[in-house]
Amino acid sequence: MSERIPKGAAALLTALLLCAPPFYLDAFWLRVGLFAMAAAIGAVGLGLLTGTAGQLSLGHAFFLAVGAYGYTWLAGEPGPGLPPALAALLAVLLAGAAGGLFSPVAGRVRGIYLGVATLALVFLGHHVLLTADSVTGGFNGRSVPALTLGGFSFSADGPAVTVLGVPFGAEERLWYLGLALLAGTWWTARGLLRGRPGRALAALRDSETAASVMGVDIARYRSAAFVVSSMYAGLAGVLLALAFRRVVPDYFGLTLSVDYLAMIVIGGLGSVAGATAGAVFVTALPLLMTRYADQLPLVATPGTTDGGVGPTEAARYLYGAAIVLILLYAPDGLHGLVRRVRARLRPAAPARTPESLPATSAVRAKEHTP
Fold it and tell me: In whole angstroms, what is the distance from residue 36 CA to residue 338 CA?
């Protein structure tokens, strides 16, 4: 009988490993991790909407912008100047409210028509971000106020903090905030998928007619999925703003929405773990290629014109190729691929002979033997 690590022990070991990087890695790697955690939160939300509920959305960047700019304006000057923690909460709710305003459309159209409708949100939002200078700062964007909780600042401008001889700057402090938000995202999303709402959304994705026969309120659940996905995107936008420390309109464009679709396709539609894996891959790849561009063939160093492909473009080519390979050979994404590999590596259960059966079962087996 093979021994397996209990789920609780595995979760504790994973948590300990994720808490260790601030003590060993420099600021670059911590920033990569922060961007990946923020992307994972947004990808989980889009996975619920597209992978579980079956609703195509190309407007995810709009809701990230609502969360990022909502926090920046609510906590900053000019603006209400609210406590940063309250501003972050209100920014997430504001993104959910934006999703709620759009939910009547999401409740009535589907497929490519919903994708085109959400695409309009990206262009409309980008126009507003460029023209509403008093709120967004226009083309140059705005600096992001630091988050404080109970007097503790998540920026390097606060009181100096040293843990086990390691000075904790902004990246180290935000690392644990990102971990807490990602853990909360996992817990809520997995609970939703395993509960009645998740089963209703899955039934809705597979067949609206069958879901309606089973008593699922189609318009209500489709609208609710859009609101929940928007709130996850708003939370990701807040964390992205804190990690970037400055928000600019050009970041929240159509390219970002396409990146999020790539995340959930590569990771696996309808999977929380898959969305997280896809987010890490799509987010970290261009950053790593930029850092090591001088060591990679056919990749141009940023700021030079040596005839190679820029690291950002090269990264997009690579994960574009990854999408093609996933669709051809692993339609259920990295999560499904890992699950199949684990199933093949798991030792087969031994065949049960009459001697290995309980006494009553062995007697019955002998009675039925000709």
Answer: 20
Do residues 281 and 271 touch, judged by C-beta distance below 8 A?
no
Q: Kindly indicate the confidence band of residue 352, based on its pLDDT and cuts at 50, 70 and 90.
A: low
Mapped onto helix, strand or coil, the DSSP state of residue 215 is: coil
Query: Domains of the chain: which residue ranges?
Result: 24-253
User: DSSP readout, 155-181?
Assistant: STTSS-EEETTEEE-HHHHHHHHHHHH
Strands 142-143 vs 246-247: parallel, antiparallel or unpaired: antiparallel
Residue 181 vs residues 19, 40, 178, 317: alpha-carbon distances, Å:
14, 10, 5, 31
What mean pLDDT comes out for the span 353-365? Answer: 49
- Taking only the tens place, the pLDDT of each residue in 78-115 is 888 899 999 999 999 999 999 999 888 877 777 888 88
Q: Across residues 123-146, what is the average pLDDT?
A: 91
Distance (Å) of CA 28 to CA 22, 119, 262? 11, 33, 24
Q: What are the helix (H) ranges across the chain?
A: 7-19, 27-46, 60-75, 84-106, 112-131, 133-136, 170-194, 196-206, 208-213, 218-244, 254-267, 272-291, 311-329, 333-345, 359-367
Tokens linked to 61 = 């960047």
pLDDT interval class at 368 (50, 70, 90): very low
Positive or negative torsion for Cα 101, 106, 107, 108: positive
pTM: 0.88
Count of other CB atoms within 10 angstroms of residue 165: 6
Residue 270 DSSP one-character state = T
Q: How many CB atoms lie within 10 A of CB 86?
A: 12
- What's phi and psi for 269, nearest 5 deg? -65, 135
- What residues contact 114, with CB distance under 8 A and at least 6 apart? 55, 56, 57, 105, 106
> In whole angstroms, what separates CA 263 from the centre of its chain?
8
Q: Say yes or no to pLDDT of 314 above 50.
A: yes
What mean pLDDT is predicted for residues 49-64? Answer: 90
Q: Is the pLDDT of residue 217 over 60?
A: yes
